[in-house]
Design a protein that fits this description.
Layout: E1 2-7, H1 10-24, E2 30-35, H2 46-51, E3 59-60, H3 68-86, E4 90-94, H4 98-109, E5 113-119, H5 129-140, E6 143-146, H6 149-157, E7 165-167, H7 171-183, H8 188-192, E8 199-204, H9 207-210, H10 213-227, E9 231-236, H11 238-246, H12 250-254, E10 259-262, H13 267-275, E11 279-282, H14 285-294, E12 298-300, H15 309-312, E13 316-318, H16 323-334, H17 352-365
Parallel strand pairs: 1-2, 1-4, 2-3, 4-5, 5-6, 6-7, 8-9, 8-11, 9-10, 11-12, 12-13
Helix pairs in contact: 1-7, 1-17, 3-4, 4-5, 7-13, 10-16
This protein binds uridine-diphosphate-N-acetylglucosamine and uridine-5'-diphosphate.
Length: about 375
Amino acid sequence: MKIVSVVGTRPNFMKIAALVDELKKHKEIEHLLVHTGQHYDTGMSKFFFDDLRLPKPDINLEVGSGSHDEQKAKITQKLKKVLGKEKPDLVIVVGDVNSTVAGAEAAKELGIKVAHVEAGLRSFDNTMPEEINRIETDKIGDFLFTTEESGNKNLLNEGIGKDRIFFVGNVMIDTLLKHKERASESKVLEKLDVEKHNYCALTLHRPSNVDKKEDFENILYILDKIQEKIKIVFSVHPRTKKSIEAFNFDDKIKNMKNLIMTEPLGYFDFLHIMANSKFILTDSGGIQEEATILYVPCITLRKNTERPVTVDQGTNLLVSVDKEKVVEKSFEIINNEIEVNDKIPELWDGKAAERIVKIILKRFKK
Ligand code: UD1
Ligand code: UDP
């Protein structure tokens, strides 16, 4: 059996790593890894291949950055050539980025079956490009592997048949559990001069927070207040870096003496940063889930989440982007005034990839 997996952005690499490890165990499977090139900086791509010991991609489509339409069209076009030549039985795509939907569409156009890992999540916010990507990918996926109960419900509500839905758990959590020990050896806290449980870990990259000057200024207000109380470690995403430059925020940021900016960090370093933080402030999808497993309070700087289990059972606090509310909640955490949930969502047990590969093998043996 031949499988092609398609990845392209930072969060894709953590997700596919668990599957690559599992697929390797089955000699009857030939597996090819395609990198679309959507993310290409060393800190957004190579770091993860190194940390997670991912094999070098068999093929890199090198599509680079561009408008969504342009990027998706380039991926589909180039990938179709690869798939036409390789003729796999199945294409695996993960997450909700442009590489995900374009990978699924390329396969479907050639009549190749598609597995979507992390299916069914919905923010019900169609202004997010990811929401469109999720819906489109699930429409055409033959195997929809879900991470939480809300995903199953959402798919059923969209009229998708039960026979396509498989509740398997979370491959990103497989990877975290596998590497947590190793990450604890990181020396990044010393490097950044922060003390355990005495800083906030921050990431930002949603267009709704960083693409418009007034939205980003709203966030800067929040950061300014927080950094008066506690250090902030800010791993700056390239989209965010571009906005900081475009909006001339350098001086404002320099004035925040407790705001420590870093280039994007490798997986082990960032995991260590999250695990030892007092709390996490983020608009990332995956980090909401990782915070839950690490039992670290997480304030999500968004109005909605496609991952409700992290709020209902995990440590995620969906506070919106109302600046006063976010500051208030942050201060409560800093002053030890709140307790967060400490449940582990169902099937987030490190075995999602094993379940996925088992299901795939069973179906293809039929
Ligand atoms: C993409 C995903 C988003 C995901 C995020 C993970 C889509 C629509 N968005 O957002 O869902 O949460 O990745 O990090 O697929 N850039 C670089 N170097 C790189 C990559 C990007 O400088 O290696 C810059 C480019 O200027 C580019 C911009 O960042 O235009 C945005 O990159 P893009 O991949 O389009 O979207 P992300 O914001 O990274
Ligand atoms: N991450 C990382 N280094 C960083 C910031 C994030 O390794 O400097 C990891 C993080 O632990 C998680 C993934 O990147 O595994 C999340 O990616 P991102 O926030 O870019 O994408 P999203 O999950 O929002 O799609």
